[in-house]
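Mods, move this if it's the wrong board.
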Amino acid sequence: MFKKVFILILSIVSLTYLFFFSGFFSLNLNATQSESLFFATKIYLFSASSCFLIGEITKNYSQIDKIWSIIPIVYVWYFTIQSDFDSRMLLMSTLVSIWGVRLTFNFARRGGYSIYFWRGEEDYRWKVLRNKTPWLKRQLNWSLFNLFFICFYQMGLIFLFTLPILAAWTGGNEISFFDYLIGFLMLLFIILETISDQQQYNFQTLKYEKIKSKSELVGDYKKGFLTSGLWSYSRHPNFTCEQIIWIIFYLFSVSATSEILNWSIAGCILLVILFYNSAKFSEEISAAKYPKYKEYQMNVPMFLGRFKSNWKD
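Not the wrong board. Structure tokens:
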């Protein structure tokens, strides 16, 4: 586990240096854009610090989850307002708002929020991680992990994967058909993510109703996890869509700047790395909990792979 964390931190430092300090990429910001980036950075630092303090005080370490779908909306609309509502940025902000409202709703209905804002459902993986990792059992070590990874890294990641909107602001190209095509694709994957989350929500709701009423469990309900619908094509269709959404979002900066690779690509790259490791850890838990899960892993790709799975009951 320590090795994985070290590799992740090394990746963060390397990418940060490459995209922001090496001179290989140029930000090309004017005075207004530089001031806007500086102010947005202060929002990031304040948000990460607040999540850390609230998490340490309440011992609920999922404070980031509560604003994961909200703060990107703040970032993109702030930049859009500062640009005097640039047409491309307005399109980008609208799509991010659709993404954010949907994801916030999905998180809320699963008990993520409470009238006491510091409460709400905590990510079950944090407790498992702490129990499985000896050096994280010490409170000081866990607090450092909470500070650097859970709060500052994840909040920094959110900040980074929204920055293609700033890169788009620096571009000289007018909004074009390509932007609307990008927007259509992003909306399409938001819809697919919605469908996959709804399928999972329906399954989990009915599963626990059946368990509570002591009904006979058959099929996926007996296995304990969902393998039908979009979940027969990917073990994590929602995670797959989430990664693709932000990769597509990056393409707006390509359209604006005519640069296939520009500095704002760092966010979506780091997001893919995070989701891969997060999915791997989640699957370790699922494989230990559900006897059939390893068979599911053998027949259905984690994210993308075979068009149709070979999964059979």
